[in-house]
Amino acid sequence: MTVEKAVNKQYVISNEYCSVVIGKQGAQLNSLVKNGTEYLWQGNPDYWAGQAPVCFPIVGVLPEGRSTAFGKPCNMKRHGVARINPFEPCEQLKNSITFVQNSTEETKKEFPFDYQLKIKYTLNGSTVTNEYIITNMGNERLPFAIGGHPAFNCPLAENECFEDYTVTFDSAVSQPCLRPDHSTGLVDTEKKYDVMQGGSILHLRHQLFEENDALIFYDCKPKSATLSGPSGRGVKIEFQDMNNLLIWSAVGKAPFVALEPWTGISSCTDEDGIFEHKRGITVLEPNETVSFKYKITLI
């Protein structure tokens, strides 16, 4: 098991099974390779230039990018400030690396709170544990949501197509999902989409994401979901610490699917615009720390 620093501001964790590359920019996953196969979407602006951004202190959007949090204005673009501000590596062990971002004058222009966000990646076998550790560094309450946004190549093998793949939950999904509006990113909670029909298997098709945006499995009772295709290759997401799972692909028949464990969801049309009233918001007291984990297993 090794952790290596690369010259292009990327860090590598590897073992006999897998190689994991994490970029210093945004402290996000850049590569997940097993047996010579790249599982992680490599980014393509024709579809979506991202790969696996970490969403903090919002997941999704604020109404017109604006809100107030405990009376203070917040003005943030989609998915918040963490992904577009610097991280630094702060701990390297044989099978893990941890990055840290502290609030700055730049982050406080958009999110006026003092925080520390650590992102730790640990590789065991073919499983990468993603851990988010948030500390309130200020003297007032800190509201936030956090989530992962990893996208995976789909298909993963030659002679397969997107529609060959399924996402299988570990138990039946008993309630309809929500969906954000393509243009605004807001969620109309009056509109429900029963794509699972009480089952546990979602058959992927591009048209599912052309018609509407992501599938939001809100207050999701299953706690793992597996993307798999005919070759047997796939990805399992375990999200015991997260309340919600999103499944998304970009319009234009994008050759990837994102499996996104979130503590909250995008702003909803029935909310009052006050940040701390949003669904799924965690509020930390001064000097309080909390952590959330989810796992990615390459199959």
3D structure, described in words:
- Helix content is 4%, strand content 40%.
- It is built from 2 helices and 24 strands.
- The strands form 6 sheets. It has a 9-stranded antiparallel beta sheet, with no helix packed on it. A 5-stranded antiparallel beta sheet has the order 1-2-3-4-5, with no helix packed on it.
- A hairpin with a 2-residue loop joins strand 11 and strand 12 (127-136).
- The model has no long low-confidence stretch (mean pLDDT 95).
Straight-line distance between termini: 19 Å
Uncertain segments are none
Number of H/I helices? 2
The overall strand count is 24
Quote the average pLDDT.
Answer: 95
Strand order of the largest sheet: 9-10-11-12-24-20-19-16-17
Largest sheet: 9 strands, antiparallel
Helix content: under 10%
| Shape verdict | globular
Strand content: 35-45%
Estimated structural class: mainly beta
SSE pattern, N- to C-terminal:
EEEEEEEEEEHEEEEEEEHEEEEEEE
Our Rg estimate from Cα atoms comes to: 18 Å
